[in-house]
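TICKET: design request
STATUS: open
ATTACHED STRUCTURE:
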């Protein structure tokens, strides 16, 4: 019996996603054995500083990629929003699973919606994208950093450190915590992270067998939408040190992509959108990025990168 080994982080959400992929692979290939290889990454170890200041979301991937390079694992499972816009040489995304709820979640024990928060309420998030949109919607709020896994963040909210926090709906639902969502922050008014809600499978580029075995889990529509969002982000050189948001949907006439670049300090938002053919999502992403830059996103991006470097 052939065995596939999945490298995964040890957080509850990462393990859920890896087990979900393992179950899907076993169902698709009854003669296949699938094992998990849980690991702790640098992004999990350093919790006292914002991700943007210590190297970005790629810190969640590096150890998993090393495990694949050294032959200790055959694939890795990621939240697609954590996957850098440019993969390391020698790796490919062999599948992107059907997207779950892409929206951000407003989570609060005392208030149902963002607009119901009292003046100067304390809201926790370390995401610059979320901070920028919070500032735009409610400039009076006090925004505070919030790191750690989902349960850690919820525990800090429950301890009274925050009046509200913002998380991903998909992560809460996957952990059976959907009842903690007070309300959903919905696109296109509020845009999620690029590829939010989707699970990605990463393999070695030369491993044809693993690519074929995992490729059956790919959802073509999700893959096209995520490709458009990621192409936009690549053109903008987006990372967690840059507040970029993007969301694409597929309709009968092709893809529709909304993009946003925001300033986490001032709350200034630059928005753009466009439609394009489903057969060329990269061109659509590049076009929306171009419109964002035409509308002044470049100065916001440069300032964000400069702040992250200090």
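STATUS: resolved
RESOLUTION: sequence designed for all positions
ATTACHED SEQUENCE:
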């Amino acid at each position: 019996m052939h065995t596939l080994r999945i490298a995964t982080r040890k957080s509850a959400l990462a393990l859920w996603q890896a087990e979900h992929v393992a179950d899907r692979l076993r169902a698709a290939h009854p003669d296949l054995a699938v094992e998990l290889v849980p690991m702790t990454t640098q992004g999990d170890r350093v919790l006292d500083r914002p991700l943007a200041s210590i190297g970005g979301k790629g810190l969640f991937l590096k150890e998993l990629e090393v495990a694949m390079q050294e032959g200790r694992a055959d694939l890795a499972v990621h939240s697609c929003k954590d996957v850098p816009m440019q993969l390391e040489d020698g790796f490919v995304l062999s599948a992107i699973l059907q997207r779950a709820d892409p929206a951000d979640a407003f989570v609060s024990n005392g208030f149902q919606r963002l607009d119901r928060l009292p003046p100067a309420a304390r809201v926790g998030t370390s995401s610059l994208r979320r901070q920028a949109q919070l500032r735009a919607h409610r400039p009076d709020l006090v925004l505070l950093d919030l790191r750690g896994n989902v349960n850690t963040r919820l525990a800090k909210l429950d301890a009274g450190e925050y009046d509200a926090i913002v998380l991903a709906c998909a992560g809460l639902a996957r952990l059976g915590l959907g009842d903690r969502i007070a309300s959903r922050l919905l696109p296109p008014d509020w845009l999620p992270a690029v590829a939010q809600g989707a699970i990605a499978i990463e393999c070695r580029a030369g491993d044809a067998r693993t690519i074929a075995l995992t490729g059956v889990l790919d959802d073509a529509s999700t893959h096209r939408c995520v490709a458009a969002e990621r192409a936009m982000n690549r053109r903008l050189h987006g990372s967690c040190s840059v507040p970029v948001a993007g969301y694409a949907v597929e309709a009968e006439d092709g893809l529709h992509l909304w993009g946003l670049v925001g300033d986490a300090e001032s709350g200034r938002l630059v928005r753009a959108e466009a439609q394009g053919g489903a057969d060329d999502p990269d061109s659509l992403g590049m076009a929306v990025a171009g419109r964002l830059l035409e509308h002044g996103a470049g100065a916001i991006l440069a300032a964000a990168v400069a702040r992250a470097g200090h």
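CLOSING REMARK: The longest helix spans residues 12-28. Residues 4 and 182 are 39 Å apart (CA to CA).
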